[in-house]
Amino acid sequence: MDNALTITNLRIEVAGSGFDIIDDVNLRIAPGEVLGLVGESGSGKTTVGLAVLGHARRGVKLAGGDVMIGDAAMLALGDVALRQARGRLVTYVPQDPSTALNPALRIQKQLIEVLEFHNFGGSDKARQERVVQVMSEVLLPSTPEFLRRYPHQLSGGQQQRVGLAMAFACRPSVIVLDEPTTGLDVSTQAHVLATVRDLCRAHKVAALYVTHDLAVVANLADRVAVMYAGRIVEQGTAAELFFNPSHPYTRHLIAAAPDMSTDREMVGLRGRAPGPGRRPVGCSFAPRCELATADCRAEFPAEREAGPGRLVRCIRPFEIPQSTQHVAVHSSPIAASATHALMVRDVCASYTGHEVVHNVDLHVDRGECLALVGESGSGKTTLSRSIGGLHREWTGEISLGSERLARSARDRSTAQRLRIQYVFQNPYSSLQPRRTVGDSVARPLIIGGVGKTEANRKVGEMLERVALTASYANRFPDQLSGGERQRVAIARALVSRPEVLVCDEVTSALDVLVQASIVELLSELRRDLGLAMLFVTHNLPLVASIADQVAVLADGKLVESGPTEKVLRHPEAEYTKRLIADTPQIAAAVET
Length: 592
Description:
The chain is an alpha/beta fold. The strands form four sheets. The protein has an eight-stranded mixed β-sheet, sandwiched between helices. Strands 18-19-20-15-21-22 form a six-stranded mixed β-sheet, with helices on both faces. It has a four-stranded antiparallel β-sheet with strand order 2-1-4-5, with helices on one face.
């Protein structure tokens, strides 16, 4: 069977520098096949995905190689031909569905525009029929009332399904999906993934699925390609690659991925991939690889066959790094005192009188981590913001130790505000861009009356504690990676030695290696400092790796709570059972 997409010797450079971002990338995807492209942030996954559309970001140059979709050479097409090819021959679904939809146009208008631009169907009636058909394909209503809605009137999952409808509207040969489920809860994610799988198979569309979520790839993709520092280091079928990875980097990725169906602990990886112009002479992964030898550092390994359909760039394939074999028993929390570190009793929270959280009771003890889980809209963030004093419209009782807290953080004492700290989901917006890292981390200390010299000393110590260095104090947020920014946010929250730490989806935007290192860091700090932690997330496999207790919210109500292993392995509430069933798991996918 001819390939729908063939990428040959693709090279992409930083314009005017000659430094390559992508080098020697070779991929092929057959009609109806899904290829997962995985790797940590900055590995070049999205850059390759955009090249399939014949596009490069500003400052980036498509320097060599071929991208063939059928007989069309995408890198050789002129502007007019490219505009015709995009949407008809190849389509793109971005990570954030709101960026794919025009907020000023109704859903029907946007779908019709795509069909009209490519003259699909040849008549208005045929295009109207296609709109109804494609909405049905993505399991959305095609009623006049629904089609007249604007994007902001849809949920995140519905927006993403409309984005898929637009992508599949003209029956393309190839579709590029760039992290399309990152911001979705597990139930919505499961529906979107099933839609992608069914549409690709039914219409023989080749899909390049760009992601850092290995569990999604294990359950969705037919084959997987692993990228590191702009190069493909391993390719193979999903089942074989996850069951027996041949490249040590792939083994580290899998070891860092949380999975509910195993009892192993997530294992992070120190260091970071080299950027453009900084790649070493030999294997790019050698500086982080415990198996590296002098031969590895001498030259980049040639592509070799590691089995039927298995390709790898490693001179020591299938050898297992010792660090990826680590399995640890979840540590027991510090013995609880008579008073809970944090207690929530009969809390109801509202927005302009509309109640969204109903009579919730929970508590967290010193040294304990309680995971608060549920779908989007279940009330998790509203409850956590109420605890942090960031949402004021609530009733009931929230106590920090033996002290009852006021509704608003402004009405709480300085000491109370310092004793309970909040780490936000987005590390890019939670730091003041005009403040240095040192100034941001020192802020709670200055508020607490600590002198500048003492504050600087404590800032340096805390930056070292979160696996950065004291030299980071002089940097600005835009000089840091996402993982480094989140570490700075954690350092800022912990520098005042709080008793309670509220983490609101703090790893959702991070790749698996950075996520694993953040989880390791939080677990270590919780043990050493005796922190009580409320960990808000919709990532159930992550819960298994970090939490002692789990509380499940559905429609603002607490439907189940208890020890992590009991709730995840033997759930009682039907809602919890559905959440777990919808959660992709690597081990379960490999076994099937």
